[in-house]
C-alpha cells in the first residue's frame, strides 16, 4: 500500500500519440490494482501520475494496458512505462516499444531479462509461452523463390506486422526520394534527347544531381589501373579478392606468353599474386530489355600487390575456357587502350552483379531477415538474446519486402536495367545460396581463407576485424551476465529452438554449410551472435554505402552490357565501348537507384546508439556503455588514419554504420 508514481512515455514518431483513452493496471506478486487515469498519450512526451493504492501489491511483475476507442482505433506507440513504488522500492521499468491497437489487454512484463529456466514465478513462464504462441501466428515463413532463404510471409509492405513497418518519417522520406529520383531521370532523358551518345564524355551529360566527393574522384580517375585494383580491396565489393595459392586452372596461357607466365609465377612465389574469379556467373541466363538482348561474362582477373600496397591488374580473361570454343583471349595492360578499358569494364559489370545479388542482397539483407523472423518467432521479450538483438532488426522486414516488390520483382528495377534481370538474378541467387557458408559471414575466418590478413592497404579487412572484436566483446559481456556456465546455454530450450529455426528452417538446412543446429557453450553462442550483429550492421554498411561513390559514374560499374564480350583486341573501337555500356535510360536508372539506396538515411541510428532501453538494471547498461566507448575509440583511430590517405575509407567508421539493415 502507498503512493505509486507512474510515468508513461510515448514515441516521438509522427502519429505516435493517440486520441483514444488508455486504461492501466499494476500487477504485483500479491495483487492487482486498476489505475483510474484519463490518459490520452501525446507524441514525444512522458506523462507522470501519482496514485495511492490501498492494498499491498508486492513486487511489481506486469503493467497491463488497454486502449479504448469509440469511432476510430487511433493506434498508440508506447515506448515504456516506469513505476516508482512506495518508500524505498526500486523503480520498475516495463519496456514496450510497439504499437498498441484494438481493445485487447496488453501485458508488459518488468524489464529484467529472464531465461526460461530462470523463472521463480510461474506467471512469467506463462506470459512468455503465450507471447510466442501469438507471435508464431503473426510472423510466418514464406518461400519467395525455391532454393533461397525463407522470408517473412508478406506479399506487400501492407501485409507486415505493424511493429515491423517503417515509422511515418521513414516512409515519407523513402517514397518522396523515389519520386525525386524519377523526376531527375525524366529531366536527364529530356536533356539528352537530342544529344549524341557516341563517346565516354557523353556520360557527363547525366553526371549531375546528387553525388559524393569520391564519386567525382571516380569520374576523373576510373580508367586508371590503380583505382581498378583498389576497388577489390576497399570499394563497394571487397568480398571477392583472394591471395593466389597456385595459378588458376582456368587461366590458359597460349604460346607466346611465356613472359607473362614467368611474371605470374614470380608474384606467386613472393605471395603478392591475387585473383578475382567471377565463375559463379558462368551459365547464368541474361536479360532482354525492350527487345534488346543483354550480355554477361564470367571473368578472371589476376593482380599483383606492389611493395607500396598498390594492387594492379596483370591479365584479364573475360570468359572461362569452353571445349567448343577457341582458347579465350587474354587482355593485358599493354594492349590497345580501348581494348584494355573494355576488358576492365566487363570485370566491373560482373562485379556489379555479384556485389548486388550475392554479397549485398543475399549475405546481408536475406540473412538479416532470417535472423529477424526467427527472433520474433522463437525468443520472447523477456529473453536476454531478444533484448540484445531487437535493435538490430529494425525496418529489415519492410525494406526486404519492398525489394521483393519493386527491385527484384517481375518488371522491377533489375528487369528494366540489369543484365542478370529477367530471371538470371534468381538463378544467380540460388547458386550463391548453395555456396553460403557460416565461415564466409565471419571476417576472421573469411579474411584468413582469402589470405587478406595483415595487408596494410586492405582497409576493409582491417576495419572489419576491429569491429568484429568490439562487437564480440560486447556480446560476451551481455552473455556472461545471464549464462554463467556452458550447461546453461545447452539447457535453454528457447535459445536452441532459435538456433534450429535459423539454420534448419530460415536458411533451409544450412548445417551442411557449417551453420550450427545447437549451441553447447558460451563461446559458440557468442560467436554466432557476433556474426548476427556484424551482418546486420557493419557488413551491410561496408557493402551498401559504396554504391553512392563507386556506381554513380556508370562506366566504372555498368549495370548491364549490350554487346557480347570482345574476342579480339584490334577491332575494339569507341563505338564498341559505347555500344557495350548502358544506354541513357539504363544509366539514368542506375544513378537514381544507387543514390537512393546508398545515401545516408535521415533517421539513421548509428551502431550501438539505439535509444530503446530493453534491458533493466545497471549491469547491461554498463556493458552497452563500454561498447559505445570502444566504438568511439575506433572512430578516432579510423579518422586519424584517413587523414593520411588520398582515398579515405569511411564505410566502417562506427558513426557511419547503421544499427540495422534499413535500406
What can you see in these coordinates?
With 663 residues, this protein is an alpha+beta fold. It has helices at residues 122-138, 168-191, 213-221, 225-234, 258-270, 337-378, 384-389, 396-407, 413-417, 424-434, 443-449, 459-482, 486-490, 493-506, 522-544, 546-550, 574-580, 584-598, 618-642; strands spanning 2-10, 21-28, 32-39, 46-53, 60-68, 76-84, 91-100, 106-109, 141-142, 151-152, 242-243, 273-277, 288-289, 292-293, 300-305, 311-317, 330-331. The strands form 5 sheets. A 5-stranded antiparallel beta sheet has the order 11-12-15-16-17. The radius of gyration is 28 Å and the shape is elongated.
Short description:
The protein is of the alpha+beta class and 663 residues long. It is built from 19 helices and 17 strands.
CATH superfamily descriptor: Lipoxygenase-1, Domain 5
Helicity level: 40-55%
Strand proportion, as a percent range, falls in: 5-15%
The oligomeric state of the chains shown is single chain
CATH architectural category: Up-down Bundle
Q: Order of strands in the sheet with the most strands?
A: 11-12-15-16-17
Report the top-level CATH class: Mainly Alpha
Cα-atom radius of gyration:
28 Å
Outline: elongated
- Distance from first to last alpha carbon: 50 Å
Low-confidence stretches: none
- How many strands appear in the DSSP assignment? 17
Helix count from the secondary structure assignment: 19
The name CATH uses for the topology is: Lipoxygenase-1, domain 5
Task: Give the rounded overall mean pLDDT.
Answer: 94
Major pleated sheet: 5 strands, antiparallel
Amino acid at each position: 500500500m502507498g503512493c505509486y508514481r507512474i510515468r508513461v512515455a510515448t514515441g516521438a514518431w509522427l502519429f505516435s500519440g493517440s486520441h483514444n483513452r488508455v486504461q492501466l493496471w499494476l500487477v504485483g506478486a500479491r495483487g492487482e490494482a486498476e489505475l483510474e487515469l484519463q490518459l490520452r498519450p501525446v507524441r514525444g512526451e512522458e506523462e507522470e501520475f501519482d496514485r495511492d493504492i490501498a492494498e499491498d501489491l508486492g513486487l511489481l511483475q506486469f503493467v497491463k494496458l488497454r486502449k479504448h476507442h469509440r469511432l476510430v482505433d487511433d493506434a498508440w506507440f508506447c515506448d515504456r512505462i516506469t513505476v516508482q513504488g512506495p518508500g524505498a522500492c526500486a523503480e520498475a521499468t516495463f519496456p514496450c516499444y510497439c504499437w498498441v491497437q484494438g481493445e485487447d489487454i496488453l501485458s508488459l512484463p518488468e524489464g529484467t531479462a529472464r531465461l526460461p529456466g530462470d523463472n521463480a514465478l510461474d506467471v512469467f513462464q506463462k506470459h512468455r509461452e503465450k507471447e510466442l504462441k501469438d507471435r508464431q501466428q503473426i510472423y510466418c515463413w514464406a518461400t519467395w523463390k525455391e532454393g533461397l532463404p525463407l522470408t517473412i510471409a508478406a506479399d506487400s509492405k501492407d501485409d507486415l506486422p505493424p511493429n515491423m513497418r517503417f515509422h511515418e518519417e521513414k516512409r515519407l522520406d523513402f517514397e518522396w526520394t523515389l519520386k525525386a529520383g524519377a523526376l531527375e531521370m525524366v529531366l536527364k532523358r529530356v536533356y539528352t534527347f537530342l544529344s549524341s551518345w557516341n563517346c565516354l564524355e557523353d556520360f557527363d551529360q547525366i553526371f549531375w544531381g546528387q553525388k559524393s566527393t569520391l564519386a567525382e574522384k571516380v569520374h576523373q580517375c576510373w580508367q586508371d589501373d590503380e583505382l581498378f585494383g583498389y576497388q577489390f580491396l576497399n570499394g563497394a565489393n571487397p568480398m571477392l579478392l583472394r591471395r593466389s595459392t597456385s595459378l588458376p586452372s582456368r587461366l590458359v596461357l597460349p604460346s607466346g606468353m611465356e613472359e607473362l607466365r614467368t611474371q605470374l609465377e614470380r608474384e606467386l612465389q613472393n605471395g603478392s599474386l591475387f585473383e578475382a574469379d567471377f565463375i559463379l556467373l558462368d551459365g547464368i541466363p541474361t536479360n532482354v530489355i525492350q527487345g534488346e538482348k543483354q550480355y554477361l561474362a564470367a571473368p578472371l582477373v589476376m593482380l599483383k600487390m606492389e611493395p607500396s600496397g598498390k594492387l594492379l591488374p596483370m591479365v584479364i580473361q573475360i570468359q572461362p575456357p569452353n571445349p567448343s570454343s577457341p582458347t579465350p583471349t587474354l587482355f593485358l595492360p599493354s594492349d590497345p587502350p580501348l581494348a584494355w578499358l573494355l576488358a576492365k569494364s566487363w570485370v566491373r559489370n560482373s562485379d556489379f552483379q555479384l556485389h548486388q545479388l550475392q554479397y549485398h542482397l543475399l549475405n546481408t539483407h536475406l540473412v538479416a531477415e532470417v535472423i529477424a523472423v526467427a527472433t520474433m518467432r522463437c525468443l520472447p521479450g523477456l529473453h536476454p538474446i531478444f533484448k540484445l538483438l531487437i535493435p538490430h532488426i529494425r525496418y529489415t522486414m519492410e525494406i526486404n519486402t519492398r525489394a521483393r516488390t519493386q527491385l527484384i520483382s517481375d518488371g522491377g528495377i533489375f528487369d528494366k536495367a540489369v543484365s542478370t534481370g529477367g530471371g538470371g538474378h534468381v538463378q544467380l541467387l540460388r547458386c550463391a545460396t548453395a555456396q553460403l557458408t557460416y565461415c564466409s559471414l565471419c571476417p576472421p575466418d573469411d579474411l584468413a581463407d582469402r589470405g587478406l590478413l595483415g595487408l596494410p592497404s586492405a582497409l576493409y579487412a582491417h576495419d572489419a576485424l576491429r569491429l568484429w572484436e568490439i562487437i564480440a566483446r560486447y556480446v560476451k559481456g551481455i552473455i556472461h551476465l545471464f549464462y554463467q556456465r556452458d550447461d546453461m546455454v545447452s539447457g535453454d530450450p528457447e535459445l536452441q529452438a532459435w538456433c534450429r529455426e535459423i539454420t534448419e528452417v530460415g536458411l533451409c538446412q544450412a548445417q551442411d554449410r557449417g551453420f550450427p543446429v545447437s549451441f553447447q557453450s558460451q563461446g559458440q553462442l557468442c560467436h554466432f551472435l557476433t556474426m548476427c550483429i556484424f551482418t546486420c550492421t557493419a557488413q551491410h554498411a561496408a557493402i551498401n554505402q559504396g554504391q553512392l561513390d563507386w556506381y554513380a559514374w556508370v562506366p566504372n560499374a555498368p549495370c548491364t552490357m549490350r554487346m557480347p564480350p570482345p574476342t579480339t583486341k584490334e577491332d575494339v573501337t569507341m563505338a564498341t565501348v559505347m555500344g557495350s555500356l548502358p544506354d541513357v535510360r539504363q544509366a539514368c536508372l542506375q544513378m537514381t537507384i544507387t543514390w537512393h539506396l546508398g545515401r545516408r538515411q535521415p533517421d539513421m541510428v548509428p551502431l550501438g546508439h539505439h535509444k530503446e532501453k530493453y534491458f533493466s538494471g545497471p549491469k547491461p547498461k554498463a556493458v552497452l556503455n563500454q561498447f559505445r566507448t570502444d566504438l568511439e575509440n575506433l572512430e578516432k583511430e579510423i579518422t586519424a588514419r584517413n587523414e593520411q590517405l588520398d582515398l579515405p575509407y569511411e564505410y566502417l567508421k562506427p558513426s557511419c554504420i547503421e544499427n540495422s539493415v534499413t535500406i
